Amino acid sequence: MGILSWIVMGLIVGIIAKLIMPGEDPGGFFMTIVLGIAGAFVGGLIGSFLGWGTVTGFNLGSLALAVGGSLLLLLFYRSRKKKQ
What we know:
There is one protein chain. The chain is an all-alpha fold. It is built from three helices and no strands. The protein has helices at 3-20, 28-50, 60-83. The termini are far apart.
């Protein structure tokens, strides 16, 4: 996937993750995109490690892995921000 595809996927995944886990997070729109892109990367790593596949494009499996990774990063991000 190209960089534009990663940004679009990150935006979509970030929005889905925020819909699943609503709440106030600092960073706004830009942080949603960053968490989505990083979540797609983390989801792909975890999926490939467990043998579930990787994030290869816009398909249902890739979307599920990316959303899962984004939810993990969102949980981590919130836990770190609460401690500060």
